[in-house]
Design brief:
Structural class: alpha/beta
Helix content: 25-40%
Strand order of the largest sheet: 13-12-9-5-2-1-15-14
Bound molecules: alpha-D-glucopyranose
Radius of gyration: 23 Å
Strand content: 15-25%
Number of helices: 18
Length: about 550
């Protein structure tokens, strides 16, 4: 397979292409003031932990003003900080402390919708002719009394997409939940207002944005109904759900143009360069359009959720890498994401196996792409079962009628609290997440005495220490962070996933034995790093991964 030799200077300037990112869910990371809720000061206090592991970028979940019905993804003021997380001077200190460590800070930006408590929405809802009347998506209802929704659209979270507003006597549209009204980006004033929000934060020094559900940003201007489909449940690939194909309210043609406009705004801030990473579901062949072809327009990258739903099998990962390389070839870059604050914890998907978690980490940090670690995956925090009826998550609240036995059978979570439980720092009460006297906002995992940062730091073979080794190796090895990728297809053993990273004549081979059998090592050379304790070079242990420098 052919590969391009990368230009070094380019790779240096484009810091996001070689970085390693850590996703901090602020509410659950570290509580510095004893209210049971994580906060900005808590992130500052734990920056050395992240820096020491080798992470170079952190993505922080939303902490601007919000009624917290969707824990920050329902914003009521884009320009101020929610008091439970801190204030503006503290945020400025966070930026400074991140930069002092030569790290980058990515901010979670919710462009698609606001909270229904945002003053823009209150104004917009107040009449049909106020100055912001057209800032959201309003439409008369159908039927004699106008009380039937304007079209058949369903929201991503399974609910109805239209909510009747008695004051305006019209329906408003929500791609997500009824308290998150969608902004109307067909209106140039809305765009300008958001571009100003973006400039405000870029002036504060943030290094870029994770763009929340960017796939939902535009809708058909005539609000036409969606065609029917046979699919009920969501999938990471298909844009069909609830028996309709989301043709007219997702991945609208205009979203790709909008990505170009957003890029122009962030490119006004050039030193250092800032980055845009979009959250979008859908087939890679479609969502790559957010990035255009040359890497110079549109978003810098998009989250690729395929890695979350791909089974832990060599053959499947090989196919996944081929898809990523096909749709995101240089100068584009794929992302490598195995979990987040909406999905099941990695270790739980792997049946609790530490050796599989190490193998997955080796894979994630040696492929070509931007690796994102969801907080706590580096120590193996498991999914914490929390019955739907106790859920604080808005999706859980909405689905509390679903029988619990059905939820328990599913490998994916319906109650997102289950993957948002607090970080496990040590074996004190509440796992050191908050003071002993405080009540954490969600329960900590029962296993916190066995699984916590302090304990794993002291165990040389722990998952955490493996993360540190692999991230640091990646950071100091250009081949691993900027090299091109060549999938090796001709190994006789299909259970081994093998690929090379190549940079300026230097070659590293990565071999992953994704099976519970010992297999013959096709490259009988000593490993630079292995997931396992040293063993004879000619065999790979079950679930062993090795990196071998082929050039020496
Ligand atoms: C994204 C976020 C999710 C949030 C939703 C609505 O999918 O990841 O947590 O609830 O958008 O903003």
């Amino acid at each position: 397979m052919s590969h391009t030799i990368l230009d070094d200077s380019n790779a240096e300037g484009e810091w996001w292409k070689k970085t390693t990112a850590y996703h901090v869910y602020v509410r659950s990371f570290y509580d510095s003031n004893g209210d049971g809720i994580g906060d900005i000061q808590g992130i500052i206090e734990k920056l050395d932990y992240l820096h020491d592991l080798g992470y170079e970028t952190i993505w922080v979940s939303p902490f601007t003003q919000s009624p917290q019905k969707d824990f920050g993804y329902d914003i009521s003021d884009y320009l101020s900080i929610s008091p439970e997380y801190g204030d503006m001077p503290l945020f400025e200190k966070l930026v400074e402390e991140v930069h002092r460590r030569n790290m980058k800070l990515i901010f979670d930006l919710v462009l698609n919708h606001t909270s229904s408590e945002h003053s823009w929405f209150t104004e917009s809802a107040s009449s049909r002719d106020n100055p912001k009347a057209d800032w959201y998506i309003w439409k008369d209802g159908k039927g004699r009394k106008g009380l039937r929704p304007p079209n058949n659209w369903r929201a991503m979270a399974g609910n109805k997409a239209w909510t009747y507003h008695p004051q305006r006597k019209q329906f408003y549209y929500t791609a997500f939940l009824p308290f998150q009204p969608d902004l109307n980006y067909h209106n140039p004033e809305v765009k300008q207002a958001m571009f100003d929000v973006i400039r405000f934060w870029l002036n504060k020094g943030v290094d870029g944005f994770r763009l929340d559900i960017i796939s939902a940003i535009y809708e058909d201007s005539e609000l036409r109904s969606n065609p029917l489909s046979l699919r009920l449940t969501p999938s990471d690939k298909s844009l069909s759900i609830f028996f309709q194909h989301l043709k007219n309210n997702f991945l609208h043609e205009k979203s790709f143009e909008f990505a170009t406009e957003l890029r122009r705004v962030v490119d006004e801030f050039d030193n250092p360069k800032r980055v845009l990473i979009g959250e979008s579901h859908g087939d890679e062949s479609l969502i790559r359009r957010f990035c255009h072809n040359d890497g110079q327009r549109g978003l810098h990258a998009v989250f690729l959720f395929k890695a979350i739903s791909t089974p832990f099998k060599a053959e499947k990962y090989r196919e996944m890498l081929m898809t990523f390389e096909k749709h995101f070839p240089e100068p584009l870059i794929p992302t490598l994401v195995f979990s987040n604050h909406d999905r099941t914890r990695v270790i739980s998907r792997l049946g609790g196996s530490i050796e599989k978690a190490k193998l997955l980490a080796l894979f994630q940090f040696t492929c070509r792409g931007i690796p994102f670690t969801y907080f706590g995956d580096e120590i193996g925090i498991p999914r914490v079962r929390i019955p739907l009826k106790h859920g604080k998550d808005a999706i859980a609240i909405q689905h509390k009628w679903v029988p619990q036995f059905l939820v328990d059978r599913s490998s994916e979570i319906l109650n997102r609290d289950e993957c948002r439980t607090p970080m496990l720092w040590n074996e004190r009460l509440s796992a050191g997440f908050c003071e002993d006297s405080a009540e954490p906002w969600l329960p900590v995992a029962d296993s916190f005495r066995e699984i916590n940062v302090e304990k794993q730091i002291s165990e040389p073979q722990s998952l955490l220490n493996f993360y540190r080794k692999i991230i640091r190796l990646r950071n100091r090895t250009p081949t691993l962070h900027v090299g091109s990728l060549e999938i090796v297809h001709n190994l006789c053993d299909r259970k081994i996933l093998a690929y090379r990273r190549i940079y300026k004549g230097e070659k590293h081979m990565v071999l992953l034995n994704i099976s519970h059998q010992q297999v013959k090592n096709p490259l009988n050379k000593p490993a630079l790093l292995s997931t396992h304790p040293p063993s004879p070079a000619h065999r790979l242990q079950p679930f062993e991964g090795r990196i071998i420098n082929e050039s020496h």
